[in-house]
Design a protein that fits this description.
By secondary structure, the chain is α/β, with parallel strands linked by helices. It has three domains: 7-93, NAD(P)-binding Rossmann-like Domain (Rossmann fold, 3-Layer(aba) Sandwich), CATH 3.40.50; 97-321, UDP-N-acetylmuramoyl-L-alanine:D-glutamate ligase (3-Layer(aba) Sandwich); 330-460, Mur ligase, C-terminal domain (Protein-Tyrosine Phosphatase, Chain A). The chain contains 16 helices and 20 strands. It has helices at residues 15-26, 41-49, 80-87, 95-100, 116-134, 148-151, 167-171, 198-206, 225-231, 292-307, 312-321, 349-358, 380-386, 397-404, 416-426, 448-460; strands at residues 7-11, 30-34, 53-55, 68-71, 92-93, 106-111, 138-142, 160-164, 180-183, 217-221, 241-246, 260-263, 266-271, 274-280, 330-335, 338-342, 363-367, 387-392, 409-412, 432-435. The strands form three sheets. A nine-stranded mixed sheet has the order 7-8-6-9-10-11-12-13-14, sandwiched between helices. The protein is globular, with a radius of gyration of 23 Å.
Length: 464
């Protein structure tokens, strides 16, 4: 793509926006960055250094003098700036779309409601190990926290870019084409953005395979009812290779060469000559990496590894060394016989459900934040079974209290610090304290990482 002299507006000066602006500038575009709030001091210095024009504290009319626009995924479709861009016929693209145009590496794109960060991290670790043996590099980028645009210039042919993708990023990526695409699952999330319609949300996720061809592979979770219904019998509808993975036998699996399943306690790959045993679950499940959902994430990663031609030995070495993902059911410490678990990355009800199911016993649960259309009733039975006290936090506090009163003892906390102290006083020896908000973090924190770090700091400050 020739960008020489193209006028580009970048709306949103977060990490991905700044990285996109730098990439576009290096490719010869005339870039303007526009931020509704304030731009960080370091980013301002960087923009000055690269002679990229910018504005902050609001969008001026100058942003509409553009050939196209790169827009932050966090800006909703109904935002005034989006509507005006569309009225003026200015194309809107994601940072992912722009970076992919200049990517020489093989792309593994991973999306889904839950599990995409863990799956992406495992796939990256496997590719790193394989790359050490075969002379290529692996990059972990996208929604996982490192902008694709920041690293794409370092990627060579033969390298692997593991790109974690949110539905927001896929919405504005019309030509994005991964060599291997993965959909981990689809459960209700972000329904505030998709008008309460899970099928609109799913359609955004399905954009991951929109441009795939016969040379490419699509991997999906057979255990997810929506995905199973969408892809079953779909080999005639889609040109790419389709590989399911699942916790049990995949019906009709004989026709899916390469399908990855759990047989007893062993992960196996279906091949033309039978089942190829890869690894036993006991070899990788640990305190900070446990639960059936994580087995599902490993199944997906094994399917990716097989699609990339990576040997089982590499997979085994990588999985045995894996220690889980920060802020995802992360063990923090034990205080007076109580395990404290940081699951700040749980931003929806399904992630909270997975965390509760993975606990070996009962827990004090700290939950709440900015609600995204959550239906808490769906986990009422599990909360009754696993939770001795629910501490409600943030904007969704009143909703949580109203739903769970009468099901479990509920207390409201005005701050995270207060919630931790309430949990310390209530938890008994042998229990856990689980911080699994089930909501977005933006009511009280910068992001889920900030939320998780603050929780861990509070826990580390507790006296034994």
């Amino acid at each position: 793509m020739n960008l020489k002299g193209k006028r580009v507006s970048v709306i949103g000066a977060g990490k991905s926006g700044i990285a996109a602006a730098e990439l576009l500038c290096r490719k010869g575009a005339k870039v303007m960055v526009s931020e509704l709030g304030r731009i960080g001091t370091e980013d301002v210095l960087r923009l000055h250094e690269m002679e990229i024009s910018f504005e902050q504290d609001g969008h001026s009319e100058d942003i509409y003098d553009a050939d196209f626009c790169v827009i932050s995924p966090g800006i909703p479709p109904h935002a005034e700036v989006v509507i005006t861009m569309q009225e003026k016929g200015i194309p809107l693209y994601s940072e992912i779309e722009i970076a992919s145009l200049f990517c020489n590496a093989r792309i593994v794109g991973i999306t889904g409601t839950d599990g995409k960060t863990t799956t992406s991290t495992i796939v990256h670790r496997i590719c790193e190990e394989d790359g050490l043996r075969h002379g290529y590099r692996a990059f972990s980028v996208g929604n996982i926290g490192v902008p694709f645009s920041l690293m794409v210039g370092d990627m060579n042919a033969g390298d692997v870019a593991v790109v974690e993708l949110s539905s927001y990023q896929l919405e504005r990526s019309p030509t994005f084409r991964p060599d291997v695409a993965v959909i981990t699952n689809i459960t209700p999330d972000h329904l505030d953005r998709y008008e309460g319609d899970i099928h609109r949300y799913a359609a955004a996720k399905f954009r991951i395979y929109e441009n795939q061809s016969a040379e490419d592979t699509l991997i999906y979770n057979w255990d997810d009812p929506l995905l199973r219904a969408h892809f079953t019998g779909a080999t005639d509808r889609f040109p790419f290779r389709i590989i399911p993975f699942g916790m049990g036998p995949v019906p009709g699996g004989e026709s899916y060469s390469g399908s990855v399943v759990l047989e007893g306690d062993t992960i196996v790959v279906n091949s033309a000559v039978g089942y190829d045993q890869v690894i036993k679950t006991s070899e990788f499940l640990k305190n900070s990496f446990r639960g059936s959902h994580n087995i599902s994430n490993v199944l997906a990663a094994v399917a990716v590894a097989r699609s990339l031609g990576i040997d089982n030995d590499v997979v085994r070495v990588s999985l045995r060394e894996f220690r889980g993902v920060e802020h995802r059911q992360e063990y923090v410490r034990t205080v007076n016989g109580v395990d404290w678990i940081n699951d700040s990355k749980a931003t929806n009800i399904n992630a909270m459900r997975q965390a509760l199911e993975a606990l070996p016993g009962t827990a004090v649960l700290i939950a709440g934040g900015r609600d995204k259309g959550n239906d808490y009733v769906t986990i009422a039975g599990l909360v009754r079974e696993k939770v001795s006290l629910l501490i409600a936090l943030g904007e969704s506090q009143e909703k949580i209290v109203s739903v769970f009163q009468g099901i479990v003892t509920v207390k409201a906390a005005g701050s995270l610090e207060e919630a931790v102290l309430l949990a310390r006083n209530a938890a008994r020896h042998g229990q856990s304290v689980l911080f699994s908000p089930g909501c977005a973090s933006f009511d009280m924190f910068k992001n889920f990482e900030d939320r998780g770090l603050q929780f861990k700091q509070c826990v580390h400050e507790l006296q034994s």
